[in-house]
Amino acid sequence: MKINDVTYGKFEIKEKVIKELIDSKPVQRLKGICQYGVPDEFYSFKNYSRYEHSVGVMLLLRKLNASLEEQIAGLLHDVSHTAFSHVIDWVVGTADKEDFQDRNHQRFVLNTEIPKILLKNGLNADEIVNFKNFSLLEREIPNVCADRVDYSLKDYMTDKAVIKPCVENMTNHDNKIVFSNKESALMFALNFLKCQSEHWGDAERNLRWYFFADAMKMALKNNIIVMDDFYKDDSYVVKKLISSKNKEIKGLLNMLRGKLDFKFVDKNPEILLKKKFRYVDPEYLENGKLYRLSDTNENFKNFLHLQKAENNLGLKINLLK
Question: Domain limits at 14?
Answer without folding.
Answer: 2-203+276-319
